[in-house]
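Moderator note: this is an archived Q&A kept for reference. The question asked for a predicted structure of one protein chain; the sequence and the answer are reproduced below.
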Amino acid sequence: MIPTDWMPHRRADGEVVGFVRMVDEAFQPMDLFGRPITEPVDWLAAEETLDAQTISWIDQPWLLDVDGAHVRVRVVELTPTRIRVKLDDFGDVTASGRFWEVPVPETGRLRPAPPITEWPAG
């Protein structure tokens, strides 16, 4: 769960793009998964870092560590307490889907998936 003392940061259009947490006398910009974007910096640098963020990075494919195997997934829901991901079915509308939940802050089970160089046999 995102700690209550983290400050949500909104862009000018109102979109929450991350959080700022205090670290001693500095401020650390955090992404929506609760992971640090940079080292602690001054307030202005933290805001500028978050202002440059969009939430489009969430839409990319991810690899989820499931018992040591890396499963390609897509984020389907993100709340301050959990990330819900679905097996990446490559747009197959007949796929039944498999879902997992990952707590927020995310602690390393998710990482961006590399680009596909070959389509899966099917």
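Archived answer notes: The chain has a mean pLDDT of 89.
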